[in-house]
UniProtKB/TrEMBL annotation:
Keywords attached to this entry: NAD, Oxidoreductase
GO molecular function per UniProt: D-lactate dehydrogenase (NAD+) activity; NAD binding
D-isomer specific 2-hydroxyacid dehydrogenase catalytic domain sequence ranges: 32-326
Protein name: Lactate dehydrogenase
CDD domains cross-referenced by the UniProt entry: HGDH_LDH_like
Lineage per the UniProt record: Bacteria, Bacillati, Actinomycetota, Coriobacteriia, Coriobacteriales
PANTHER family referenced in this protein's UniProt entry, alphabetically: 2-HYDROXYACID DEHYDROGENASE HOMOLOG 1-RELATED (PTHR43026)
Oxidoreductase among keywords: yes
Length: 328
C-alpha cells in the first residue's frame, strides 16, 4: 500500500509514521499542506489518504477519487469534517483513529490539582520573588467531593484515577456506566452542583450541550467551586463564568478549551492583536488557568493517531475489517 499524509507535522508525527511504515510494511509520502483542490495532485499514484481535521467535502473527495485514492483515514477521533456518505458513494472506506483516554483524563486531573493548589498564582508570585504564604492556601483533592459530568471513555477514566486519590465522587450522565457506578455515585445535576467542591466536564460538544454550564448552573453550585473543562469550550457560557469568578461563586477554573478558540490554537499568534476578549479576561484572573487545547497531546496519543489510521488503511487495502472504520 502507498499512503499519502496531508497536514503532517514534521516535528512529531513524521517519526511515528516512518516507524509504522517500516514495521507494518507500507510506502508513504507526505506534505505539511492541508488538502485542497489545488494540491490533490500530490496524492497521485497513492492508494490511500491520511488527513487531520481539515474539511473533506464532496468536491474534494471527487478530486481525490479521480486521482486514484481508494480509502481515507483521519488521524482524529472526530470525523464530522468528512462527508462520509459521499465517500462511501464513491466506494471509499473511511476510518478514524481513537486514542487512549488516559492522556486527556490525566491532564484534567492535573488541571484540577493545579487549580486547587493555586499553581498559577504560585508561579506568578515566585517570578516576582514573593515567597510568602498569604493568599496561597490550597485545598487538597483527597478531601474534596468531585463531580464528573459525562462518564464516557475519558470521564470514566477520570473517575477511576480520582478514586485512587480518595476523593468522594459524584457523577452525572444520561447513560450511566455500571463500572463507574462502582466508584462514583450517580446523582441528578442539581445534586452534583450542590455537593461538589470541584466539577470536571467530559461531555461532548453537541448542540444541545451548548452553555449547559450557564449562570443558572453556577448559582446552584457551592460557593468557591473549582471548574475544570478539558472537553469543549462551548459547554460553558464564558460570560457567565467571568461573572461567577468576579463574584467569588467560582473559586478557581482550569480550562483546556474555551469558546471561540478556532484560529488561535495551534498557531503562533504571538505577534498579533487577538480578537478573543474572553480569553484575555480569563487569562488575567490569578485563579483561572487557560491552556491551548493540549490535553490530547502526548507521545502516546500522537503515536496512536498515526498507528491506528495507518492500520485501518492497511486493513481496507487488504479487504479486511477494522474496528476503526466509520459508517454514515
Ligand atoms: P465519549 O463519547 O466516550 O463520552 C461522552 C459521554 O458524555 C457519554 O457517556 C455521553 O452519554 C455523555 N453526555 C452527553 N451529553 C451529556 C450531558 N449533557 N451531560 C452529561 N453527560 C453527557 O467521549 P470521550 O471520548 O470521553 O470525550 C469526552 C469529551 O472530551 C468530548 O467533548 C471530547 O471532544 C473531549 N476531548 C477533549 C480533548 C482535549 O484535547 N481537550 C481530547 C479528546 C477529547
Amino acid at each position: 500500500m502507498k499512503l499519502f499524509a496531508y497536514a503532517l507535522r514534521e516535528y512529531d508525527e513524521l517519526g511515528y509514521l516512518d516507524a509504522c511504515a517500516r514495521e507494518m510494511g507500507f510506502e508513504y509520502g507526505w506534505t505539511s499542506e492541508y488538502p485542497n483542490l489545488d494540491n490533490v495532485g500530490l496524492a497521485r499514484g497513492y492508494d490511500a489518504l491520511c488527513i487531520i481535521t481539515n474539511p473533506m467535502p464532496a468536491d474534494l473527495l471527487d478530486a481525490f477519487h479521480e486521482e486514484g485514492i481508494k480509502n481515507l483515514a483521519t488521524r482524529t477521533i472526530g470525523y464530522e469534517h468528512i462527508d462520509v456518505a459521499h465517500a462511501y458513494k464513491l466506494g471509499m472506506r473511511v476510518a478514524n483513529a481513537p486514542y487512549p483516554p488516559e492522556g486527556v483524563a490525566n491532564y484534567a486531573i492535573m488541571l484540577l490539582l493545579m487549580a486547587q493548589r493555586k499553581v498559577k498564582l504560585l508561579s506568578r508570585q515566585s517570578l516576582a520573588q514573593d515567597f510568602g504564604l498569604h493568599g496561597k492556601l490550597g485545598k487538597d483533592i483527597s478531601t474534596s467531593t468531585v463531580g464528573v459530568i459525562g462518564t464516557g471513555r475519558i470521564g470514566a477514566t477520570v473517575v477511576r484515577h480520582l478514586a485512587g486519590f480518595g476523593c468522594r465522587l459524584l457523577a452525572y450522565d444520561p447513560y450511566p456506566n455500571p463500572e463507574v457506578a462502582k466508584l462514583a455515585t450517580y446523582v441528578d445535576l442539581d445534586t452534583l452542583y450542590a455537593e461538589s467542591d470541584a466539577i470536571t466536564l467530559h461531555a461532548p460538544g453537541l448542540p444541545e450541550n451548548r452553555h449547559m454550564i450557564d449562570a443558572a448552573a453556577f448559582s446552584k453550585m457551592k460557593r468557591g467551586v473549582t471548574i475544570v473543562n478539558a472537553a469543549r469550550g462551548m459547554l460553558i457560557d464564558t460570560q457567565a463564568l467571568v461573572g461567577a469568578v468576579e463574584s467569588g461563586q467560582v473559586g478557581a477554573a482550569a480550562l483546556d478549551t474555551i469558546e471561540h478558540e478556532e484560529d488561535l490554537y495551534y498557531l503562533d499568534r504571538s505577534r498579533d492583536v487577538l480578537p478573543n476578549r474572553d480569553r484575555s479576561v480569563l487569562m488575567a484572573f490569578p485563579n483561572v488557568i487557560v491552556s491551548p487545547h493540549m490535553a490530547f497531546y502526548t507521545a502516546e496519543d500522537v503515536e496512536a493517531m498515526i498507528r491506528n489510521s495507518a492500520s485501518a488503511l492497511l486493513a481496507f487495502e487488504r479487504g479486511e475489517k477494522t474496528p476503526f472504520e466509520v459508517r454514515h
